[in-house]
Write a structure and sequence with these properties.
- The protein is α+β, with helices and mostly antiparallel strands.
- It is 17% helix and 44% strand.
- It contains 7 helices and 75 strands.
- Strand 48 and strand 49 form a beta hairpin.
- Helix 2 (705-776) runs antiparallel to helix 3, helix 2 runs antiparallel to helix 7 (912-927) and helix 3 runs antiparallel to helix 4 (808-825).
- The longest helix is centred in the last third of the chain and has 72 residues, at 705-776.
- The radius of gyration is 61 Å and the shape is elongated.
């Protein structure tokens, strides 16, 4: 615990060692400076304005820009590029206007400045204002009212105005110079103009309906016109010029060349940002103050209660405190005492020879200061003693200080009195204003040491690990490896806590390491911890935390507290002090209990491509407009550098955008219903700010369900109708074909039967004539043989007449009987020969019945009959190309001569055999497509006919 230290120490240092006292330490609010290096287009800023949507607009020497805390947008002026603008205004419908020093007014149109109107004024620049959607300006000798909605205007002559009392609600104020007299021109909420009074060489400032007159821009010559009372603010610096007067939260802010002055309602006056040329101040919705300057860009003040103390021009290396004093060391080795009551820093010089001390140990109980760097020193009253140790860490006990050094554990006490359980493990090393003991448990380097006095336990962090020493131990015990990257140990509320860089904060319960503080520790990388006023303070990578035993409070960028370069911290009561190298940051501990607004997500104009159509929420889009650009801003002036956006489409995986990304481009989206959600992340933690955008991309009509349904129904109906008609036609044709086939088959059968029936009587007639001739000739033997063969042939013909096909063997047998009978009829002047290839199996091959007999008959009757002798007929059966080839070869008179001889006979008798054979061939060729007939007329070398060759080809 901290002890009260005696003021005699400081008094002695002042008298003996020498000191330099500064009358007052410099104090001002902690701010974040934004300049051209951070993206600001110009450091010379004339005016700022917080729009209704929270966006900051900045008028500067190169035009107009906007800022959301992280990203700048510059609006290009096509009409007058890089023209200096000032006097930013906003209409009720959110249109941003700005006025240049040449009295041209411009309107923000998407990413550019569009020229709106020029209000010439021979007296120079004259600020304008906006009421609702009407722009009010002075031009020449008139007040002009310009309606920004319908682009109409009307004018009132200033000379026609009457003098009257000041209206209750003022929406415009201007100065009118006439005949060396300056008059105040005002406009009320009814857009009526009035004259107030005259005053020479005055400047007018108009802010939120309040009018301020400033004579010769001097601070002690200001009048609050609305209240009709003067304002007098003393200036430390001579020739301070007033740039602008603003009203925020019932306070009057005077922007000067020597900083910013605030007059509160009670009349008290505060000065901040001294030595800065301030041009304007605005307050954002989250109570962040934004100060603009004429040469240094922007100053963002997250909280006026967080200020910085400049107690030295050097870099501070360490910070601690005792009661009402802060002790800090500098890079050159100076020790500075800052009295929190008198606000006076005292610099004590030449205290130590070593540079850059890394530890300051103050013990009021022993009236001692211990400084440790490359060497260590005791400072006590009139004693300055060098110690043979380098102190790495320390902790206070009831009667002294336990020191962790590069040579083990040491104990410093005012009195020669040690805890009883250390007596046999201690050796007196040095006596300098007190007693320095070496604890002989070990001589290893110790990086940190903590003590749990109620339980008589010491914890040390060494190269070997964490050692535990109890009252019953003669040697330290090595605790289990925590398997973490250890930063520091701390004892809080009799619990040993381990600060780590990878596992948060762990607690040793005597057996194992578990998450500390009931598992409520925030996530992060932790470096250092202290206990002040029975509260645990922990320094993390991006914040400072306070734990009161139940709740954690976080101090970070949102309050303007940067913890990146913190070298030490100290808390007394409600006041917290952080060493930020160049200065000390001070703030009340209760600041974290006041809820801060989360970053604000605002939509900017969004468009669909390719027609650049403005998007609205819940919009229905055609399939052609399927490439969309979503633009937005995230308002976070306190912590904009650590704020980013993530989005999801239809609740799918989150897509995190870069910190400076302010738009999302979605190209070639498929027809569907989309729900686009945007999430704001601050310090990589989701803030709960969710903004959604819902839209639907309709498919082309030919891909809609109703069109598909209609098309399917229509196609099905057409197919059904066509199929029905085709099926009906097929059935009808099938019935006709079937009937026709039946009829044709019956007809074929009847024709064949008829032909066969007709052919049989014809042959019988010829055979009977032959038998009759034998009888006339009384040749009984031949008549008997003929009758026998004739009967066999007749039986064979009758049998074949009832069958459509017969075997080749049966056909050859029938032909043999027939030719034998014909040979007998020709009285041996006729010779025939039937040849069958051995490869043909006659008992298996089938062919139409009586197919060959008509050709054989024709060969005999028309070819051989007219020849007197040497009549020959040759019938050959052979296999050729998977076909049965039948050749009927005679050496008759030929078809031509036979036709000539038959012409005379046909005049009296028509040959039935020829006609019947012709019809039979046609029928057979219809039913048997592969039956081929070929008749060849044979001739001699002299061209005389030598017979006829008939070739019939049948499939095998």
């Amino acid at each position: 615990m901290y002890r009260r230290w005696l003021h005699t120490i400081i008094n002695f240092f002042i008298l003996v060692l020498g000191f330099s006292v500064k009358p007052f330490a410099q104090s001002e609010p902690n701010y974040i400076q934004i300049t051209r290096q951070q993206g600001l287009q110009s450091n010379q800023i004339y005016a700022t304005h917080i729009a209704k949507n929270g966006l900051l607009y900045i008028a500067h020497s190169k035009g107009l820009s906007s800022f959301d805390g992280s990203v700048f947008k510059n609006y290009y002026n096509h009409y007058l590029p890089f023209t200096e603008v000032s006097n930013i205004m906003e209409t009720d419908d959110g249109t941003i206007l700005c006025k240049a020093f040449n009295n041209n007014v411009f309107k923000v149109d998407h990413d550019t400045l569009k020229h709106l109107k020029w209000f010439p004024n021979p007296m120079g620049f004259s600020p304008s204002s906006v009421y609702q959607n009407t722009l009010i300006a002075m031009s020449n000798d008139s007040i002009v009212f310009y309606n920004t909605i319908n682009n109409t205007q009307r004018s009132i002559s200033i000379k026609s105005l009457k003098k009257t009392v000041l209206p209750k609600k003022v929406v415009f104020g201007g100065l009118y110079y006439h005949d060396k007299i300056t008059s105040l021109v005002v406009v009320d909420s009814t857009l009526q103009g009035y004259l107030w009074f005259g005053n020479t060489s005055s400047n007018l400032h108009f802010s939120a309906g309040q009018l301020f007159l400033n004579e010769e821009k001097k601070m002690d010559r200001m009048i609050h016109v609305n209240k009709q009372k003067p304002i007098s603010i003393p200036s430390v610096k001579k020739n301070t010029i007033v740039n602008y007067v603003a009203t925020i939260d019932n306070a009057i802010w005077v922007c000067t060349t020597n900083g910013l002055y605030r007059q509160n309602e009670n009349g008290s006056i505060e000065q901040i940002l001294s030595k800065h040329n301030v041009s304007n101040i605005v307050c954002a919705q989250d109570q962040t103050y934004i100060v603009s300057t004429l040469d240094e860009g922007l100053f963002i003040i997250p909280d006026l209660r967080v200020d910085r103390l400049q107690i030295s021009s050097e870099t501070l290396t360490n910070l601690t405190g005792n009661q009402q004093n802060l002790l800090a060391t500098t890079e050159s080795g100076q020790l500075i005492n800052y009295n929190l009551t008198t606000k006076r820093p005292i610099t004590l010089t030449e205290l130590i020879a070593s540079k850059k001390p890394i530890k300051i140990i103050v013990d009021s109980g022993t009236n001692t200061i211990i400084l440790s760097g490359e060497q260590s020193y005791f400072l006590k009253q009139n004693q300055v003693a060098q110690l043979p140790i380098v102190i790495k860490d320390y902790c206070y006990t009831k009667n002294g200080i336990l020191l962790a050094t590069n040579g083990g554990l040491y104990y410093y006490t005012k009195e020669n009195k040690l805890p009883s359980w250390w007596m046999k493990h201690s050796v007196l090393v040095q006596r300098a204003g007190g007693y320095l003991y070496k604890l002989s448990y070990f001589s290893l380097p110790v990086f940190s040491v903590k003590i749990d006095e109620p339980n008589h336990t010491i914890f040390c962090n060494t190269y070997d690990g964490i050692l535990q020493i109890t009252a019953n131990d003669s040697l330290p015990q090595l605790l289990p490896e925590p398997f973490c990257v250890l930063s520091e140990m701390i004892v809080y509320d009799n619990h040993v806590l381990l600060l780590t860089k990878d596992k948060g904060i762990l607690e040793w319960n005597g057996k194992s390491y578990n998450p500390a503080c009931n598992n409520t520790v925030p996530k992060g990388i932790f470096y250092r911890a202290e206990v002040f006023n029975k509260q645990l303070w922990v320094l993390a990578e991006d914040a400072l935390y306070r734990y009161d035993g139940t709740h954690w409070n976080r101090y970070d960028h949102r309050y303007g507290i940067e913890t990146n370069d913190i070298q030490g911290f100290y808390a007394i009561g409600e006041d917290v002090y952080l060493n930020n190298q160049k200065h000390i940051i001070h703030f009340p501990a209760s600041i974290a209990t006041q809820k801060k607004l989360a970053p604000q997500f605002i939509w900017m104009p969004c468009y669909s491509e390719p027609n650049h159509e403005l998007l609205r929420n819940n919009q229905q889009l055609s399939f052609r407009n399927n490439s969309l650009l979503f633009a937005f801003n995230v308002i976070s002036y306190r912590n904009g550098r650590n704020t980013h956006v993530a989005y999801s489409i239809n609740d799918e995986a989150l897509i995190h955008l870069p910190f400076n990304a302010r738009q999302v481009q979605l190209n070639h989206l498929n027809p569907n219903e989309y729900n686009l959600k945007f999430y704001v992340y601050e310090d990589n933690r989701q803030t709960g700010v969710v903004s959604s955008f819902h839209f639907t991309i309709h498919p082309p009509f030919y891909k809609t369900w109703w069109f598909t349904t209609i098309l399917l129904v229509l196609v099905a109906a057409i197919i059904g109708m066509i199929s029905r008609r085709i099926l009906f036609r097929w059935k009808k044709e099938a019935r006709l074909i079937q009937g026709k086939l039946i009829l044709e088959r019956e007809l074929d059968k009847s024709i064949l039967s008829s032909i066969k029936a007709q052919m049989n009587p014809h042959f019988l007639f010829n055979a009977l004539n032959t038998i009759q001739s034998y009888i006339y000739m009384n040749d009984k033997k031949n008549a008997s043989v003929y009758i026998s063969k004739f009967s066999d042939l007749t039986r064979s013909i009758l049998d074949m007449s009832n069958r459509e096909s017969i075997t080749l063997e049966e056909e050859i047998r029938s032909l043999t009987l027939y030719l034998d009978l014909e040979k007998m009829r020709f009285e041996d002047s006729f010779d025939y020969h039937i040849h069958l290839d051995e490869s043909i199996k006659a008992e298996i091959v089938r062919l139409p019945s009586m197919l060959i007999q008509p050709y054989v008959e024709n060969a005999i009757k028309h070819g051989l009959l007219h020849k007197k002798n040497n009549r020959r007929l040759r019938i050959t059966f052979k296999k050729k190309d998977a076909q049965l080839e039948i050749q009927i070869d005679d050496n008759g008179i030929g078809r031509k001569r036979s036709s000539e001889l038959n012409e005379i006979k046909q005049r009296q008798h028509k040959s039935f055999a020829m006609d019947a054979n012709k019809k039979r061939l046609e029928i057979l060729k219809t039913n048997f497509k592969q039956i081929n007939f070929e008749i060849i007329d044979k001739h001699s070398d002299l061209g005389e006919p030598t017979g006829t060759l008939v070739i019939i080809r049948l499939p095998l």
